[in-house]
Amino acid sequence: MITEAEIRQVPKVLLHDHLDGGLRPETVVELADATGYTSLPTTDPDKLATWFRGGAHTGSLVRYLETFSHTVGVMQTADALARVARECAEDLAADGIVYAEVRFAPELHVEQGLSLDEVVEAVLDGFRAGSVGTGLHMRALLTAMRHQARSLEIAELAVRWREAGVAGFDIAGAEAGNPPTRHLDAFQYMQRANGHFTIHAGEAFGLPSIWEALQWCNADRLGHGLRVVDDITVDPDGKATLGNLAGFVRDVRVPLEMCPSSNVHTGAAPSLDRHPIGLLRDLRFRVTVNTDNRLMSGVTLASEFATLVETFGYGWSDIRWLTINAMKSAFLPFDERLRLINDVIKPGFASLIP
Predict the structure, then answer these.
(1) Spans in the chain with pLDDT lower than 70
(2) Between the CA of residue 56 and those of 59, 66, 335, what are the distances in Å?
(3) Can you give the CATH number for the domain in which 145 is found?
(4) C-alpha span between 299 and 66 (Å, rounded)
(5) Was 20 annotated as part of a binding site?
(6) pLDDT confidence of residue 176
(7) Active site residues
């Protein structure tokens, strides 16, 4: 059995990770004290970590998202944002990640007077500081909240900062009642600017969310996307038949940013052994493995892969295949993706795979 410690040593790629979902518990406590935030349920770091995991593991995406009020609450100054971003980079590098796109919503961090540009600048400064000398290539995704009306503004912000380390644009938040087409002007702006964007779709809502994200909004990737399995029928003999939407997703190689543990915690998947990633990997969809929210789900990318090894019997070739899928799908120039695949990822796995 491949161990988590062994997986931590190989080069990995992370495409779906939320900055405000990955804080160190002790950092939350210290920032709360420094910024005068008094609403934490406890100031004991160990108990706080347990509280975050317990609050997130409810089987409800809405309840899961409620825990973010505390992390966002302590991320309202430039110093706090830079520290969180620096520690994020340090933690990902320690987990063996060589390329990461970490997302955050600038509009959630302006309560104490920061401008949107100041929020982005602070986070990018932190990413640079935390990744120096580690071999980790960090980029940001700027997220707009789908229940708000600032998506075009955030898309413009993403384009304004793309030469400084912003990889692209995203929308997130509760899917039900907030279809991606509400933000069509932002997606069209990104396309006119030759920008990249992903859309949270097919997590807590079904096929219509995926269809709109792809066929109306032209998303480059799908955040989660696991409900595409609703368009696949498996007969008693195990033969799978793909519907038109599922067939399109597979045939045009739409990357699926899957987050197995988080999907179980939010109720998007009933259990790890029944998570759609098993079937979708077998059918050779462009599946990638991600953490989503490391604090809330109590995971690392290494632990997510270890979970798949235990649940589906994956070996090194599966882990490498999923990793290369992610690198192919990154919002990074082609030559840089190719260099990381050929010079870093493949050599890193070469001694492990016959």
Answers:
(1) 61
(2) 8, 8, 39
(3) 3.20.20.140
(4) 19
(5) yes
(6) 79
(7) 203
188: domain range? Answer: 4-338
Rounded Cα–Cα distance for residues 170 and 151 (Å): 9
Residue type, 40: L
* Annotated binding residue 200: yes
pTM assigned to the model: 0.97
Cα–Cα separations (whole angstroms), residue 44 to 19, 40, 72, 117, 143 = 21, 10, 18, 33, 30
The pLDDT value recorded for residue 108 is 98
CB neighbours of 180 closer than 8 A, spacing ≥ 6?
Answer: 146, 171, 187, 199, 201, 209, 212, 213, 216, 217, 219
Q: 96-120 b/e with 16+ CB inside 10 Å = b? A: bbbbbbbbbbbbbbeeeebebebbb
Residue 344 belongs to some domain of the structure: no
pLDDT for residue 1: 85
CB atoms closer than 10 angstroms to residue 44: 14
In a domain, 118, yes or no: yes
Any binding-site annotation on 173? yes
Q: Confirm whether residue 16 is marked as ligand binding.
A: yes
The answer to the question of residue 345 being in a domain is no
Which of 87, 88, 86, 56 lies closest to 70, judged by CA?
Answer: 56
Instruction: Find, among 127, 199, 188, the residue nearest to 159 by Cα.
Output: 188
pLDDT of res. 223: 97
The 10s digit of each residue's pLDDT in 222-256 is 999 999 999 999 999 999 999 999 999 999 999 99
CA distances 175 to 19, 36, 179, 185, Å, are: 20, 33, 6, 18
At residue 24, the pLDDT reads 98
pLDDT, residue 253, reads 98
Model pLDDT, residue 351: 84
